[in-house]
Amino acid sequence: MGELEDKARRFLPLTEATFYVLVSLVAPRHGYGIMQNVASVSENRVKLGPGTLYGALTNLVKQGVIERAGEQELEGERRKIYALTTLGKNVVRLECERLEILARIGRETTSQLKTT
Amino acid sequence: MIDKTTKTVFRIHWAWNDDKEERWLGRMAKEGWHLTAPRGFYYRFEKGVPADMVYRLDYQNPGKSDRKEYLGLFKDAGWEYAGQFSNWYYFRTKAGDGQASEIHTDPESRIAKYRRLLALLVIIFIAMWTQVMTSIGQHRNPHGFWSAIRGLQVAITILMAYVVIRLLIKIERIKKGRIGRDTK
User: Fold this and answer.
1) Longest C-alpha distance within chain B, in Å?
2) Alpha-carbon span B62 to B73, nearest angstrom
3) To the nearest whole angstrom, how far is the Cα of A99 from the nearest Cα of chain B?
4) Residue A110 domain boundaries
């Protein structure tokens, strides 16, 4: 447990692109599914270009954060499915915990600013 | 008279200046010339309907096994594959149209693109440099042919060093965020 967490912690903080890719993979998806999910959860504020996405996916596979988990048909063509590994799940969990602390501090700060 | 439907244009573009190459390809498309084959120092075009296109270049090495997956991502995202030269991949999409006009959407991945190219060039540079240095160490060869070869080696080594420096400058400029993209 501890060792895996230490290993996962080394990936933090994530870049915005990596963060969006990893949270999209809470459910296994193909590349296009990731792009659509990122656009939808960010309410179209973040668009992930295919060049950026391909680079992120190959890096994350190499680092063992995600893995290829079979293929799926998309409009008659085969597309690879990506899924979080156990390491990847730990990375996402730790990053979300870290961000929650930041978000709490952020909320406290904005409310303090309002009262001054 | 036969209508000219294809043409070949000779043109050199520098690796650190692919933004300029992209814009040039866009201007060709506006005149109805659509890229069919980029070949490094020349380009083949096909005559078609003039169109407002955005061209983008990626430098990537997906390998044979991953090529379909790589091109598939671009296709799904609305980019048409227009050709390949070495590890340079050419993509295009209609301008405007509510489509995203970038294949790289953060500075990190733009930098990574130039770093991949840089890694290859540095290896070539070191190989050339080693060869030049060892040939200087050996006794002089007076024959004109060999000194010409040596001169050529030195010229290529200097050129490699120059390209490496220009790429490093480009990466620094992206890091500092002074350019999302070169406009010159």
Assistant:
1) 66
2) 12
3) 20
4) 2-115
**Residue B120 and residue B85 in one domain:** no
**Residue A79 burial (10 A CB sphere; 0-12, 13-18, 19+):** buried
Q: How far is CA B7 from CA A77, B23, B175, B177, in A?
A: 33, 19, 39, 38
pLDDT tens string A6-35: 999 999 999 999 999 999 999 999 999 999
Q: How many domains does chain A contain in total? A: 1
> Three-state DSSP class for B94?
strand
Query: Residues B167, B128: one domain?
Result: yes
Contact B8, B43 (CB under 8 A): yes
Find the CB nearest A54 among B70, B102, B106.
Answer: B70
CB contact B58 to A (< 8 Å): yes
The answer, for A38 touching chain B at a CB cutoff of 8 Å, is no
* B117-B119-B120 Cα angle (round to 5): 70
Length, in residues, of chain A = 116
State CA A21 to chain mean position distance.
Answer: 4
Alpha-carbon gap, residue A83 to A72, rounded angstroms: 13
User: Please, which pLDDT band fits residue A73 given cuts at 50, 70 and 90?
Assistant: confident
Q: Is the CB of B77 less than 8 angstroms away from the CB of A79?
A: no
- SS3 call for A8: helix
The DSSP string of A36-51 is HHHHHHTTTS----HH
**CB pairs below 8 Å between A and B: how many?**
66
pLDDT tens, B39-67? 988 999 999 999 999 999 999 999 898 99
The domain in which residue B13 lies consists of 6-94
